[in-house]
Amino acid sequence: MRKTLSALLLVCAFSFSLVGCSGRSSSSSPTDPSWNTIRSKDTLVVGVEENFEPLSFYDKEGNLTGFAVETAREVGKELGVAVEFKTIQPCSAQDSLSNGEIDCFWSNYSKATQDSEAANLTFGYMKSSQVIFALADAPLNNLADLKGQRVGVKEGSGGQKAVEASTTFKSCLGELGTYRDYVQAKTSLDNKKISAVIMDEVSAEYYLKQSPERYRILGKNSNEPPETLETGDYSVAFRQSDESLTLKIQEALNELSDDGTITKLSKKWFGTDLSSASSSL
FRET label pair with 89: which of 64, 100, 180, 265, CA 20 to 30 Å apart? Predict the structure, then answer.
């Protein structure tokens, strides 16, 4: 089983809920016009993060790519609509949905600590966890060693909200620094301005694979999985009123799960199958 916060519990006496947050499903067909609106304009505007490797990022040729981007494009093909991307920060996703700038936000981290009631969410289509990313030579062996350390988080991320949900844990840290994205946080780590970054495991594994001698994930070795702050799923977030569009995306994700497309993309980007798409539709 994955190691959890037991070590830090002894030091700080706090706990995180490990209860997952599943997307909503409807027992009857929704009648709102959101899906018909998308079908009429023939375009789904998808919000994604700009520097969230390997989910959504710009490659060396300047093309937007990644697991989330390719999954969204496959959903567009399944539904027969074009997909247009807009890069936004997770902390502004709700505002971008509310003002109509985007139709949905891809790779929304679904967890009890998140604002899950602020929007409709699809079921989780990919598993992830919040882990501790550090330099290989950092004097950190477990989560308890974070006491008194300056730790970085991505603004609006699941890691930040997990920390903010526990004032006891936050008070154990020497300081909590917020960054626009993981690229900035990792740069600060490289310059030793912070001791570690609370990071989505998929991103941490991506950076670790690129520089295995420079970085490590706390607790992870050849025999043991990493220590995690919490575990959750990634889903797609919509405006609360857009129930028919949410349902259509869920149906498309189900199809892509059944035909193996999501598994194929997961193995391409992560080297393993992290897909978790399942629905009570």
Answer: 265
